[in-house]
UniProtKB/TrEMBL annotation:
Ranges annotated as spanning the membrane: 314-331, 343-364, 384-403, 430-454, 490-511, 542-560, 566-584
Organism classification: Eukaryota, Viridiplantae, Streptophyta, Embryophyta, Tracheophyta
Membrane listed as a keyword: yes
Protein name: Callose synthase 5
UniProt keyword list: Membrane, Transmembrane, Transmembrane helix
Any one annotated GO CC term: plasma membrane
C-alpha cells in the first residue's frame, strides 16, 4: 500500500515516459541534451498559427506546454496515453534521421527539412501507392507559404502515427488505415486552410468531433466489432474458410474504389458494417451477403484437385516431357534425329495435350474458386468464362488442324494464303500457323521471365493500356505487384533447375522409358492370348492390360523422382554455399580458443566505424589482425564490448558467476 501511494505521489510530480523524459524535470537528462533530440522537440512544439478550442486545457495553453500532437488530440479525440507514446515515437524517428544526414545539417539543433521529407516518404509510401492504385489524389496537401510547410508535414505524420497507435488489431488491415487517414487528413487540411463546407456553410470540422476518446469509440470500435464477429463465426478455425473472413479478407475490401461508398463519417448501412448491424438486431444475414464481404480474390476450397491446380505449370511440363520422350523412344531414333520430318510431326502433338491441359486448368479455376464469384466484378467473371471458351476452342482446333492433310478438304483462301508453308513438307501448313498463334502468349511470358525488371514495371504500372493487356493474364490486386527476384538471382535459379531437370529427364529417358519400349511392342504383337479372367479383357487385341501394368509403376516413379533429384542437387549446392561461407569451420572448444585472438580484429574491421574504405572481394579465408602491441587500443574497445556481453549473460542466467 505504501508503494502504491509512493507511485501515486511521484505521478503527480513526474510525467510517465518510455525513453524521453519530456517533462520539465527530465530536461537535465543526458538523452535530452542531444542536439538532434532538441531539434525534434523544438519542431514538435511549433504551434504557431493553430487555433485551439477554448475549453481544452486552458492552463497548459497559457503556459505554452502543448505541442502539435496535443492539438491533434483536441481536434480528433485521440487518447491521452496514445499521444504520449507517439510523441516519443515521432521525436525519436526524426532525431534518428536528422543525425544521419550527410552532409551534416547546420545548425545541428534545428530540424532539417531533409529529415522530415525522408521520414514522410517512409511513412506514406504505402498510402501514396494505395491512392495511385485506386485512382485517387492523396490528401497530403501542403501550404504555399514555406514557413508552415514543415509544421504541416509533422502534423500529417503525427496524425498517421496517432491513428496507427490507437488502431489496435486494425493495424493488421493497413489499407483500412489508409482509408481512415485519407479522410482525416482531408479534414485536417480543411481545418488548417479554413475551408467552408458546401452543405452547412460553416468551417469544416472533424466528422467525429474532438471529445475524449472519440476516435476509439466512433472509428476503431465499429471496425473492431466486424473483426470480432468474424472471429466468432470461425468457431476457433473449425468453420470452412469460405464461411468467415480473416484480417486479410476484410482488408481486401479497401483494395477497391467501392470502399469510398462507406463515406466519411462511415455509414452504418455500408456493405462493410451491414452484417454486424443485422447481427446486433438479431437478424441472420443471407449467405450471399456473407460471401460478398471481404472474400474478393481467394476462397479456400479444400480438394484433391488443388494439387494439380496449384502446381499446374509443373504438372503440365512433366506430362508434355513424358509424351515427348515416349514419342522419341517409340520412333526408335537417337536424340540427334528428332528434327526428322516424321518425328517432328509426331512431337508437335504435345501442343494438343497442352491445349487440353489448359482447358482443364480453366475448368478447375471455375470449380475451385466458385464462391468468390459472388464478390468479383463482371469483368473478372467474364475473363474466367472467356478462358474456358478459348481453352475449349484450342482443344478442338489443334486436333483438327493436326489431322488435316493437304488433300483432305479445302479451306479455300486460307489455304492459298498459307501456301508458303508448303516448303516444310511432312507437317500440315495450317497446323504450323495454328501452333504459332497458340504460342504467342507463351513467348511473351518467356520474355517477361527473362527480364524481371520489365515485368516489375508492367505490373506496377497504372496505365490503362497496360492494365488492359494484363487483364487476361491475372487479376489486378493491390499487394504482390512487381515482387520479382533480381536478374542475378533469376539466373542462379534457372541454372539450378536446368541442371536438375536435365539430369532427371536423362535418367527417365535412358533408364525408365526407353528400355520399356521394346517389351511393350513385343507384348502388343502377341495374339490369341487366353486370359484366366477373360471378363476383364474381352476381345483383347493388343494386350493393353499387360502394357498398362508394365507402365504404371514407371510413370509413378517418373512423377515422384524429382524430389530425389532435388534432394541431391540441394545438398550439393548447400555444400558449396557452406564451404564458401566457412560454416562449421570451428567445431571444437580448442579451435574456439585458438580463434579467440582474432575476435578483436574482426570486431574492429566490421563493427567499428573507420574513414578507410574496406576492400571488397571474394576470399576463401579471412585473416584479421590479432591483438599486437600496436593494436592495444582496438583490443581495449573489444574488451569493453565483451565484458558487457558476459554481464548480460549472467543477468539472464545463461552462465553462472563462476564462469
Amino acid at each position: 500500500m505504501a508503494a502504491a501511494n509512493d507511485v501515486q505521489t511521484k505521478k503527480e510530480i513526474y510525467a510517465p515516459y518510455n525513453i524521453l523524459p519530456l517533462d520539465s524535470a527530465g530536461a537535465s537528462q543526458s538523452i535530452m541534451q542531444l542536439e538532434e533530440v532538441k531539434a525534434s522537440v523544438a519542431a514538435l512544439w511549433n504551434t504557431r498559427g493553430l487555433s485551439w478550442p477554448a475549453s481544452f486545457e486552458q492552463q497548459r495553453q497559457k503556459a505554452g506546454e502543448l505541442d502539435l500532437l496535443d492539438w491533434l488530440r483536441a481536434m480528433f479525440g485521440f487518447q491521452r496515453d496514445n499521444v504520449r507514446n507517439q510523441r516519443e515515437h515521432l521525436i525519436l524517428l526524426l532525431a534518428n534521421i536528422h543525425t544521419r544526414l550527410i552532409p551534416k545539417p547546420e545548425p545541428l539543433n534545428k530540424l532539417d527539412d531533409r529529415a522530415v521529407d525522408a521520414l514522410m516518404n517512409k511513412l506514406f509510401k504505402n498510402y501514396k501507392t494505395w491512392c495511385k492504385y485506386l485512382g485517387r489524389k492523396h490528401s497530403l496537401r501542403l501550404p504555399q507559404g514555406q514557413q508552415d510547410v514543415q509544421q504541416r508535414k509533422i502534423l500529417y505524420m503525427g496524425l498517421y502515427l496517432l491513428i496507427w497507435g490507437e488502431a489496435a488489431n486494425v493495424r493488421f488491415m493497413p489499407e483500412c488505415l489508409c482509408y481512415i487517414f485519407h479522410n482525416m487528413a482531408y479534414e485536417l487540411h480543411g481545418l488548417l486552410a479554413g475551408n467552408v463546407s458546401i452543405v452547412t456553410g460553416e468551417n469544416i470540422k472533424p466528422s467525429y468531433g474532438g471529445d475524449d476518446e472519440a476516435f476509439l469509440r466512433k472509428v476503431i470500435t465499429p471496425i473492431y466489432r466486424v473483426i470480432e464477429r468474424e472471429t466468432k463465426t470461425s468457431k476457433n478455425g473449425k468453420a470452412p474458410h469460405s464461411a468467415w473472413c480473416n484480417y486479410d479478407d476484410l482488408n481486401e475490401y479497401f483494395w477497391s474504389s467501392d470502399c469510398f461508398s462507406l463515406g466519411w463519417p462511415m455509414s452504418d448501412g455500408g456493405e462493410f458494417f451491414k452484417l454486424t448491424k443485422d447481427s446486433a438486431k438479431g437478424k441472420q444475414a443471407p449467405h450471399k451477403k456473407r460471401g460478398s464481404m471481404g472474400k474478393s480474390f481467394f476462397v479456400e476450397s479444400r480438394s484433391f484437385w488443388h494439387n494439380f491446380r496449384s502446381f499446374d505449370r509443373l504438372w503440365t511440363f512433366y506430362i508434355l516431357a513424358l509424351q515427348a520422350m515416349i514419342i522419341i523412344a517409340w520412333s526408335d531414333v537417337s536424340i540427334l534425329d528428332i528434327f526428322r520430318k516424321d518425328v517432328l510431326y509426331d512431337l508437335s502433338s504435345i501442343f494438343i495435350t497442352a491445349a487440353f491441359l489448359r482447358f482443364l486448368q480453366s475448368m478447375l479455376d471455375l470449380i475451385l474458386n466458385f464462391p468468390v464469384y459472388l464478390r468479383w466484378k463482371f469483368t473478372d467473371v467474364l475473363r474466367n468464362i472467356l478462358k474456358i471458351i478459348v481453352g475449349l476452342a484450342w482443344s478442338i482446333a489443334l486436333p483438327i488442324c493436326y489431322l488435316h492433310q493437304n488433300n483432305s478438304f479445302s479451306f479455300g483462301k486460307i489455304k492459298d494464303m498459307l501456301s508458303f508453308l508448303d516448303k516444310i513438307k511432312g507437317v500440315p501448313p495450317l497446323y504450323l500457323m495454328t501452333v504459332a498463334v497458340y504460342l504467342l502468349p507463351n513467348l511473351l511470358a518467356v520474355a517477361l521471365f527473362l527480364f524481371p525488371m520489365l515485368r516489375r514495371w508492367i505490373e506496377n504500372s497504372d496505365w490503362l493500356i497496360v492494365r488492359f493487356f494484363l487483364w487476361w493474364s491475372q487479376p489486378r490486386i493491390y499487394v504482390g505487384r512487381g515482387m520479382h527476384e533480381s536478374q542475378f538471382a533469376l539466373i542462379k535459379y534457372t541454372i539450378f533447375w536446368v541442371l536438375l531437370l536435365c539430369s532427371k529427364f536423362a535418367f527417365s529417358y535412358f533408364i525408365q522409358i526407353k528400355p520399356l519400349v521394346k517389351p511393350t511392342k513385343d507384348i502388343m504383337r502377341i495374339r490369341h492370348v487366353t486370359y484366366a479372367w477373360h471378363e476383364f479383357f474381352p476381345d483383347a487385341k493388343y494386350n493393353y492390360g499387360a502394357v498398362l501394368s508394365l507402365w504404371v509403376p514407371v510413370i509413378l516413379v517418373y512423377f515422384m523422382d524429382p524430389q530425389i533429384w532435388y534432394a541431391i542437387y540441394s545438398t550439393i549446392y548447400g555444400g558449396f554455399i557452406g564451404a564458401f561461407d566457412r560454416l562449421g569451420e570451428i567445431r571444437t572448444l580448442s579451435m574456439l580458443r585458438s580463434r579467440f585472438q582474432s575476435l578483436p580484429g574482426a570486431f574492429n574491421t566490421f563493427l567499428v566505424p573507420s574513414d578507410k574504405k574496406r576492400k571488397r572481394g571474394f576470399f576463401l579465408s579471412k585473416h584479421f589482425n590479432e591483438g599486437s602491441k600496436s593494436k592495444r587500443s582496438e583490443a581495449a574497445k573489444f574488451a569493453q564490448l565483451w565484458n558487457e556481453i558476459i554481464c548480460s549473460f549472467r543477468e539472464e542466467d545463461l552462465i553462472s558467476d563462476r564462469k
